[in-house]
Amino acid sequence: MHSSALSIRTNAGGLRTQTSMRRAGHNLQESVGRLSSGLRVRRAQDDSAKLAMSQTMSAQRRGFQQAQRNVSYGISMLQNAEGHYQSISDTLIRMRELSVEAASDALSDTERSFLDQEFQELSNTIRDISNSAEHNGIKLLSQDPGQLDVATFQVGTRNSANDTITWDIEAQDPDQLGLVGAAVDTRDDARTAIDDIDNAMNLLMTDRSELGSVLNQLRVSMDHLSRTIEDYGTSVGVIRDADVSAESATFTKQKVLQEASVAMLSQANAAPQIALRLLG
User: Fold this and answer.
1) CA–CA separation, 226 vs 232, rounded Å?
2) Distances (CA, A) of 182 to 9, 104, 197, 270
3) What distance in Å separates the CA atoms of residue 30 and residue 233, rounded to the nearest whole number?
């Protein structure tokens, strides 16, 4: 049982009140910190297990965000290549048109020579497109010595085949398309050129279809990464974020307790004065 005797040496009530006031002040500062930062777990002393878990998940989320940027860069690269494929396709279509025209006996060899001049210029255009197509210094439609022949896109956060997507870079110059020596300066050459160009378009479309498939894989990866990043962000929030409504109630409670402690400390400090008046 606590003594209720008046004392001028030890103010037991004041000491107890100071302890309560310090506790309320500490709790109030913690509540202010959580409300101002929006975090329930800010330091290891708040909840070391939850802090470690949230830091690990945050690191993984950052990795997924970088993988998402990798996918975006990859899509941009392949869209660049797609544009060059389209240019070559348009050129082949014009070359086939010239071949069909030159294959008719309604034209003389002189007229065919004019058509062949454009035909050869278009063939050189395909070579120029193939040699000049690049993205960030990476050749997209040629296989020069020392150049990248397989592009690998890191679309996950692990060192595994499931976290990468690859695209084989195929040359699209006249040599690879089988157009070397093709001409339309005679009727027979023009008819042969029709078959050569049909074969070239098939080769081009085969490689272009592969590019489209890789693009679709990258877009699927982008959607998956977006959902994963969202889920990880939500999980980290559940672990670390403060419940504002609960913290506001705690803040109000601790503030009231602190103010009550201050008032009671004033009363406790008055007790020795009462004892002195009794001595007088």
Assistant:
1) 10
2) 115, 17, 9, 112
3) 24
Interatomic CA distance for residues 220 and 257, integer angstroms: 56
Mean pLDDT per 10-residue segment, the chain (280 residues): 50 62 64 60 63 77 93 95 96 97 93 96 96 90 79 92 93 93 95 97 95 96 92 73 61 64 60 57
Residue 182: per-residue pLDDT: 95
pTM of the model: 0.71
Instruction: At 266, list the tokens.
Output: 């004033």
Q: Which of 175, 154, 181 has its CA nearest to residue 165?
A: 154
Q: Residue 124 has what pLDDT?
A: 96
Q: What is the pLDDT of residue 55?
A: 75
The H-assigned helical ranges of the chain are 12-37, 44-102, 109-132, 174-177, 187-240, 244-279
- Looking at residue 245, what is its pLDDT? 64
Q: Which amino acid is at 74?
A: G
Q: Name the DSSP letter for residue 166.
A: E
The answer to whether 184 and 119 have CB atoms below 8 angstroms apart is yes
Helix (H, G, I), strand (E, B) or coil at 167: strand
CB atoms within 10 A of CB 15: 12
Distances (CA, A) of 201 to 90, 108, 174, 187: 10, 28, 11, 21
Q: Cα Rg for the chain, rounded, in angstroms?
A: 39
- Report yes or no: 224 and 203 within 8 Å, Cβ to Cβ: no
